[in-house]
Amino acid sequence: MKSKVCMLFGRIAAGLWLGLMVSAVSAADISGVGPDFTLKSASGKNLKLSEMRGEVVMVNFWASWCGPCREEMPLLEKMYQKYKPMGFTLLGVNVEEDSAAAQKMLQDIPVSFPVLFDSKQQVSKQYKVVAMPSTVLLDRSGNVRKVFKGYQPGYEKKYENEIKQLLRE
User: Fold this and answer.
1) What is the pLDDT of residue 16?
2) DSSP letter assigned to residue 55
3) According to a count of CB atoms within 10 Å of the terminal CB, is the N or C end of the chain lower?
4) Residue 59 Cα distances to 38, 56, 74, angstroms
């Protein structure tokens, strides 16, 4: 019971924080070529964004304490599986200083897309992340085409529409 109360409180707090952040900041979008980065993945390998040129790339910034992130993660996995054969990749970038909570969450909500760790928040600062989750879509040339701040049910349809359009280009 105690853990359910804590989880509920965490979701409420994260939702309030998210609402404040999304409404407070609107001009923090980035444009042009997405900043390149190299981060260590959950598999132990370093992944470099620029090596994914030629693919449509979704970069999803998330944290284990974020209720909307937990809700969105299985939906992202479904999109990844559906569009991966068509030239789509998804990078889940965890922004927590200590990756232990993220690793535990990934045991509860397993995903097959690469999960990267931005423990010093350098990449999230480059991408001007102000809300959890934040999602950036890059075209095959690495240009930022769309930025989504936060998550609400139904966003996955918006993601899919954008992904399909970018895959057709």
Assistant:
1) 38
2) S
3) N
4) 13, 10, 15
